[in-house]
Each structure stands twice: as structure tokens, then as C-alpha cells.
Amino acid sequence: MYALIASFPILLTVVLMVGFNRPAKQALPLSWLVACLVAGLVWHMGVLEMTAQTIAGFLSAFETLCIIFGAILLMNILKQSGAMASINQMFSNITRDARIQAVIIGYIFAGFIEGVAGFGTPAALAAPILISLGFPPLAAAAVCLIYNSTPVCPGPVGVPTLTASSTVASAVTGLGGNPDTFTMELTKWTCIPHMIGGFFIIFIGVCVLCKVFGPNKSFKDALPALPFCLLSGAVVAVIYIPMAIFAGPELTSMVAFIIALFVLMIAAKKGILMPKEEWTFDRVEEWGDKSWMATRKVSTTKEKGMSPVKAWMPYIIIGIFLVISRIAVFGLKDILNNEPFILHVDHILGFENINWDFKFFWNAGILPFIIVALLTIFLHKMTKTEARTAIFDSFNQVSGAAIALLFGVAMVNLYRFTSDASIGETVLSAGQTVEEFTYANSSMLYIMAHALANIFDKAYFLVAPLIGVLGAFMSGSCTVSNTLFASLQFETATVLGMSQVLIVALQNMGGAIGNQICVNNIVAACATTGTNGNEGKLIRTNIIPALIYCAVVATIVGVLLFTGVNPMPELLQ
User: Fold this and answer.
1) Which residues contact 365 (CB under 8 A, 6 or more apart)?
2) DSSP 3-50
């Protein structure tokens, strides 16, 4: 009953956005209001505390808005400076086939960006490039979100996987295990099924492109691209899996996808396993759906004959900076994550545990995106008119995402930080001893996940990735999903006598798969591509690929479980 009550705001969000195609900026404020009613009337959260958590959510949403704005600003400056036209020409010279462009840019290039930055930046950078190559904006957003899955777990220098491992480290130690061993095994058994699922998702992305957005609305148009899709998966896997097994999560996506990018660009240029006939979005305005196009008018790309090196220089600078700043050995990571580069908002409305810390130079939107975007104005010798146009367009595009993100993240805070001992005691009444009921074991989000676990019991491996998806759908982050549910997954596996490594791996993979449909990413992608108001259509488009991916990894792990595979059997002795 409590789980059903807690699910009302989520169900309302889905019904409004998916069923009635209402824009997120309308659906999420209403869902937040319903979440307030549930938190107040059922979980007995006070009005002042709800207000404080809402303010904290607004502040957290500002961090995501910085990333969105930075990516949009860079894109618009490159459009005005003539750089984007040069970049388009380079990709067009490799191939004009939109299916292959989607794989190289949406999966491989964005996979590298996920490896160094993550947190919404891959789709924000890759989708505008696809749009500039002629993709309908909604198609670019959809395919980039679908592809933002495989690289996520060992993505931004391994943070999601390391977070899952650190969250359960004390439990691992308590059962006589080694946390470092758990981290390596978790990385291995996350990345092997994840990469197998990646083979499917590369082709599924092309299928969605052809079936949903193609002129013939046919899966048959995707088949000629299957050989190149398999080649792409193989090239990534050859590096991705050994890196995961022997090096850990920090460099896996970064290294695998950047090497694959160069290999596959050369392969496409030489025609290796390429489709015989090109498939493009030429004249899409004549046969396409108007809802695929941008709902906000922005400036067009200018052609100035800029050299490819000069055009790519902002991205090169960003890539170099992200690598240097995200890998601890260079020393910059510690500097940017500590004083004086942290803005503190402590004890919001007097609550000691409600705080906000903004590491402003660690935010990829500010540094490097906004800083590099502004430097590009001078690097590319833009006129004042061009610069003003780019900045105006950027504020115009990001404004539609602001309301949705503010209330979306605020609602997540209510889900995460509700706490009621009587509800916790009712739900955990089956002989479990709990010293203290907190948001970790009696929150709205925890109660929902706990109910799913009880329903599925021995078939729990089927629902484990869905819990990860739920966490990502609500929070917009695989890392936060792991923070919320890794402990629950670990403890449930222990109670059911299942391998904790494999079940937490499913949580990790589910959190990554949830990126395809999570509200934050959907809103960010729509803002970046100028398709605000189509969030529900994107969720409807991407939900099937997400469920297929979940089914693939759950099946693989289910086979492992039923054949007795347990990477750390000592944790069940």
C-alpha cells in the first residue's frame, strides 16, 4: 500500500508526459505538488522541511542547468563562428549515411565524452553535431539518449561503479570480504554483460532511427547497417572488456571509445562493412513529422571555410582539460574539488542535514564549457553581433528546461529524504531489527524498491536492473541511483542467497540504462536540441530500447546465477 501511494507522483509524471504528451515544464510542477501531499500527509514531513528540501533541489538543479547552458552556448558559438559547418563537412566526408553517422557520433564520440565527463554532457555535445548534419532534432536527441548507456558505468572516470562499491564497502567488510576485490569484480561483471548488451543497443539505436524517423518507417532500412554496428561493438569490446577486468573502472570508457573513434572513422572512410546505399535525412522537411523539428527558433549554421583543426580546437581543448582534471594523477582533480572552489549553502531553513555544496569549477558546464565557449569568441574572431546572437539563442533554449529541472530535482529530494519510523516498522516487520529508521530504510523511494524486491523473490535478478532504472529515472544519474539502492540490492542478494557482486552489477547497469529515459536527461536533451515540449514523445520512443537492454543484461546475469557463478562466494558463507 505504501509503495503504491509513493508511486502516485511518478505515475502522474508518466501519464502526463507519455499519455497526454504534456511538456515536462507543466507535468513536473504538478507532480512535485502531489509528492508534497504524499510526503506531508503520509510520511509526515513538515511543511518547513518540504520547503527546505525543495530549495535544496532547486540549487542542485542549477548545477545541471549550468551543464546544459554550457553545452548549448558552445554549440551556438560554433554555429555562428563557422566552426560547426567545418565539423559537419568533416563527418560528411567520412560518410553521408545517417545510420553510420549516428553510430560514430552518437555512440562512439559520445561514449568518450561520457568517459571523461558524464552527467548529461554526452547527448548535449553529440546531438547538436547530428542536427548540423541534417538529423531532425528529435531524432538526434532520441538516438543519443539510447546510446548513452553502455559507457556510463565505467563513465566519468568510473564514478558510478566506484560509488556503488563504496556504498556497500562496510557490508562487504562485515561479511569477511575485501572491498578492493569487490570493486574489481563489480567492474568486471558490470562491463561484460553491459558490453554484450551494447552490441544489441548499437543496432537498436539504428532500428529506432529507421522505424520511427525514417521515410519508409521500416526496420528493413536498418539491416544494411548491421555489419558496421557489429564492427563498432567489437572494436569497443576489444578494449573495453580487458580494461574493465585488469585496470578497473576509471579509464575503461575513456580509453575504449576514443581509440574506437579513430578506428571506426578510418573504417567508414575506407568503406569497411559499410552499407552499399546511403540512407540520409535529405528533404526530411517534406516527408517528416513536424513534431520532430525544433520548437524554438535558433540561428542557422554559418559557412566561413574554417579549417578543420581550428574548428575542432574548442572540443580538443575541452577533451584535454577533462582528461587532466578527471584523472587524479595530474593533481588538478583535488584542487577543483576543494576550497576555495566550493560554494556552501549550509543549514537551509535551519535544518542541519539539508545543505548544498557547489564545486563550481568542477561543474563541466562552467569549466570547461562556458569558459572555452567564451574563449572561442576570440579564437575564431567572431563579431559582436555573432557573439550576441549565440548568447541570446542559448538563454532562449535553456529557459524551457529550467522549470522542469527545478521541480523535477525538488521532487526527487522529497522521494529521497522522507522518513517515517512507523512506515519503516510496518514494511520491515518480518523479523528484521533496525536500530534507526531514516531515509535509507523508510523513504518513499526505498519503500517502492523494497516492495518490488518482495514481489519477485527468487526471480529478483529480473527486477534488480529495473530498480536501478527507477533510481536513474527519478534522480537523472546512475551515480545517485547507486547511492540510493546499491545497499538495498546488496542486502537483498544476501537474504536471498544470491551473488552480491552480480546483483549490485545489475543495479549498476540498470542505473546506466535509466539514462535513456530519466527525466533530467530527457529535459536536457530537448533543451539542447530545441525540441522542448516533446519530452513525453522521447520517453515513449526510448522506453522499449531501455527495457530490451534490461532484459538482455538480466538474462545474462540470470544464466550466471543459475549455473552457480559467484565471484565472491566468501560473502555468503
Assistant:
1) 63, 65, 66, 67, 68, 69, 70, 71
2) HHHHHHHHHHHHIIIIIS---HHHHHHHHHHHHHHHHHHTS---HHHH
pTM above 0.90, yes or no: no
Q: Report how far Cα 28 is from the mean position of its chain's Cα atoms.
A: 19
Q: Hey, how many other C-beta atoms are within 10 angstroms of the C-beta on 320? A: 12
Alpha helical stretches, state H, 418-517? 421-427, 439-442, 444-456, 460-475, 478-496, 500-513
Polymer length in residues for the chain: 573
Residues 4-62: tens digit of each pLDDT:
999 899 889 878 877 887 887 888 899 999 999 999 999 999 999 999 999 999 998 88
> At residue 58, what are phi and psi to the nearest 5 degrees?
-60, -45
Per residue in 419-429, pLDDT (tens digit) is 888 888 887 76
**Residue 145 CB partners (closer than 8 Å, separation 6+):** 123, 515, 516, 517, 521, 522, 525, 538, 542
d(CA 336, CA 340): 9
Specify whether the CB–CB gap between 252 and 191 falls below 8 A. Answer: yes
Report how far residue 403's alpha carbon sits from residue 535's, in angstroms, rounded to the nearest whole number. 13
pLDDT at 464: 94
Tell how strand 343-345 and strand 356-358 pair up: antiparallel
Cell 548529461 sits on residue: 120
Distance, C-alpha 425 to centroid of its chain: 34
What distance in Å separates the CA atoms of residue 123 and residue 476, rounded to the nearest whole number?
Answer: 13
